[in-house]
Amino acid sequence: MKALIKLSVAAFSLVVVMGSQTVKADSDIEKIIGKDDLIAVNAEATNVPTKFKSLVDAFGKLGMGCTATHIGDGYVLTAGHCFWAGPTAIENEDCPGAENEIQWGFREGKEPYLTSKCEKIIMAQRTEKMDYALLKVSPVPPVAIKADLYKRAKVGEKVTIFSHPEELPLRWSQSCKIQKVQDSDFDPALIHHICDTNPGSSGATIINYYTLKVVGIHDGGRADGNGGGLNYGTYIYDTPLRKIIKDLNIK
User: Fold this and answer.
1) How confident is the prediction for the chain on average, in pLDDT?
2) End-to-end alpha-carbon separation of the chain, Å?
3) How far from 98 is each of 119, 135, 180, 200, CA to CA, in Å?
């Protein structure tokens, strides 16, 4: 199954490149920038900073091989390309199939404490400037991470990512800063970072290191083989997500 998932994502990348979109779904290549900073989060999350310990149960592994984050009331963020979204937004559609189950709390030495089913795709879209999906799931995870709806993350801000690369138990990227884009292949409207990710990290939320609020969604990236490269994602504030989440009045 894992091999089929990777093949599908690679095929999707080919379609996007052939369509001459600026943003590439490079989810089938490694995106370790420099040395590998990923840390396997242990069962009780005692090997990550204490402030993150209460958040780790808000991260989930989607059955098709992406990462998801619960932001409250059963609403979950991930990447649009995980649902084959395109420029025309998907709105209020039923989720297709059991592969969209989400396992919550899967860490080293600890099995998931809850499995939710995706009931509805509230909105999903993928363009040159954004790649996001907002889902409604049930049962509702008990832990959530709030989205920052009141300011756009700025270049230089410190951020972090928790994800399920290669469908592994939860990994922590440690920290990095939002970067100024200097590569013409990447749209400057996207959020850019060098926090380590890998296939399966798509859809993981980009979290402000200090406020612990979601400022973006990780979508993809490219390592250059010489320790450099760039990862990219979708801002919460400058996309339709801000209004959608605000109108939902998530508690």
Assistant:
1) 87
2) 36
3) 10, 14, 39, 17
CATH class of 2-248: mainly beta
Round to whole Å and give the CA distance between 222 and 24: 9
Q: What is the Cα–Cα distance from 48 to 229, expressed in whole angstroms? A: 25
**Residues 7, 161, 24, 137: what is their CA dihedral angle, to the nearest 10 degrees?**
60
What's the CA gap between 127 and 180, in Å, rounded? 20
CB 216 within 8 A of CB 233: yes
Spans of the chain below 50 pLDDT: 1-27
pLDDT in tens, 108-154: 999 999 999 999 999 999 999 999 999 999 999 999 999 999 999 99
DSSP state of 50: H
* pLDDT at res. 23: 36
pLDDT of residue 32: 85
Which amino acid would we find at residue 38?
Answer: L
Contact residues for 216 (Cβ-Cβ < 8 A; gap 6+): 153, 159, 191, 205, 206, 233, 234, 235, 236
CB 171 within 8 A of CB 40: yes
The residue ranges of every structural domain in the chain are 2-248
Measure the CA–CA gap between 5 and 2, rounded to whole angstroms.
5
- Longest Cα–Cα distance of the chain, Å, equals 45
- At 185, phi and psi to the nearest 5? -75, -15
